[in-house]
Amino acid sequence: MRPENLAADRVDRRLAENQSGKRKVVVVVRERDGRTLPSVFESEDAATSFIRSRVAKGTVVHADESPAWNSLHAKFSMKRINHQEGFSIDDACTNGAESFFSRMRRGELGHHHHIAGIYFARYAQEAAWREDHRRIGNGDQAEGVIGLAMGLGPSIDFCGYWQRTKAG
Question: For residue 154, what are the domain limits?
Answer without folding.
Answer: 137-168
